[in-house]
Amino acid sequence: MDADRAYGVRIDPATRAALMPARRYHQWAMAIFNPFLPSFTRSPYRAYAALRAEEPVHFSPTLQAWVVTSYAECERILRDHARFSSSPLHATGPVAEMIRQQRRELPLGAVPTVLNSDPPVHTRLRGIVSTAFTPRVVEGLRARIVAIAESLLDEVPEHGEFDLVPTLMQPLPVIVIAELLGVPPEDRALFKQWSNAIAATTNLFPTADTFAAVKQATTELIAYLTTFVEARQREPQDDLLTALVQAEDAGGRLSRAELLAFCVLLLVAGHETTTNLIGNGVLALLGAPEGAEALDALRADPALIPNAVEEFLRYDSPVQAIPRVATEQVTLGEGAEARTIEPGAFVLLLIGAANRDPARFPEPDRFDIRREDVRHLSFGLGSHFCLGAPLARLEAHVVFEVLLRRFPSLQSGGEPERGGTFVLRGLQRLPVSG
């Protein structure tokens, strides 16, 4: 294979020569950035810093994609929907074909969502579903979210160790979304199982067994949701699902397939990211060098919690990467660091790296809940800014308010365990004591 046109993307010969011979480049790239290594999942930030310093726009042989590490370039790409598509259907090469094959096999896999579509389809879809996520609607959920958090913490001992993941982090967002959709309490465990299985799609190269589990979970979830959609059409209720069934804009209502695809997205994205936001935030408070001071400050002044949540999102983002596809030839970076990206190439925005870019944030590796300018990229930007951001923020605000009030002596109860994937950064175990 031509080293200068590997994987369907072009690396300028002069750039290649300036870097190093192709084989040495591949070895260097694998040593610096290999997101499939457990050591990388545990702590990716040194690798991010090395990439920013050595090659901020970097071709990853592992991922067969360009990875972007600087805040400025990530921000520019997120705002440039004309040259950087959210749809993998624009991509070329073996990875693109693998994704297309997966989408053909998955139920509703070919149905566009607000996550993976471009205008005008994205504009229509977002215009319809956004009516259910206005700040007023979300704020109206506060009292119920407080009650859920209180109820979950009622089940743990006031003194002694407990695991925050199954106790609070995982069930709270599942309960919130299940209630929004009108799902009965006895089916919440099923919802959690389906969400966990489908979230594995964020593994960039899932195994055959993983993909089979995703396919089965998606099939079961869609069949389950279909009965609820049909029931809401016959007998409307006061819930989000009814609002989505009835929602219209100038382009008409959501089709049945679009509605079901959005509900699947809502469950997975709304559950996993909020769980990870809460867990990464607690871990920062208990483990970062500045964590103890921050924890004392939050106990003394809960009004700091909203800004602390933004710093949690910046410091250890629950979403570490956002993919885009170049739709035309484009140059990223400047001067000697400029790279030419060909149409159809995958571009992976390393949000975790951008959020710690020293060109954007003073002392980026310092955990500072009083940071004045904390405009992170964890929820994206522009027309693809996360629809669920207000709900995720509200859930996090409530959790930390209730948790610190109920457990004023909160401290680590043992070694945490990382879980999730490279893209969704979270924990599978977080022992604490109060």
Structure summarized in a few sentences:
The chain is α+β, with helices and mostly antiparallel strands.
Average pLDDT value?
Answer: 87
Number of strands: 14
How many helical elements?
19
The shape, in one word, is globular
Rg (C-alpha, Å)? 22 Å
- Largest sheet descriptor: 5 strands, mixed
The CATH superfamily turns out to be: Cytochrome P450
What is the percent of helical residues? 40-55%
- The CATH architecture assignment turns out to be Orthogonal Bundle
| CATH topology-level fold name | Cytochrome p450
The quaternary structure here is single chain
In total, the number of domains comes to: 1
Summarize this structure as a short list of keywords or feature phrases.
single chain, 434 residues, alpha+beta, Cytochrome p450, five-stranded mixed beta sheet, three-stranded antiparallel beta sheet, globular
Describe this structure in words.
This protein is of the alpha+beta class and 434 residues long. The protein has one domain: Cytochrome p450. 50% of the residues lie in helices and 11% in strands. The chain contains 19 helices and 14 strands. It has helices spanning 13-19, 22-32, 38-42, 45-54, 71-79, 94-105, 121-129, 135-139, 142-153, 164-169, 171-181, 188-199, 208-234, 240-246, 256-287, 291-300, 305-315, 351-354, 389-406; strands at 57-60, 65-68, 84-85, 161-163, 248-249, 252-253, 321-326, 330-332, 339-341, 346-350, 411-412, 417-420, 425-429, 431-433. The strands form five sheets. A five-stranded mixed beta sheet has the order 1-2-10-7-3, sandwiched between helices. α9 (142-153) packs across α11 (171-181) and α13 (208-234) packs across α15. The termini are far apart. Mean pLDDT is 87; it is low at 1-22.
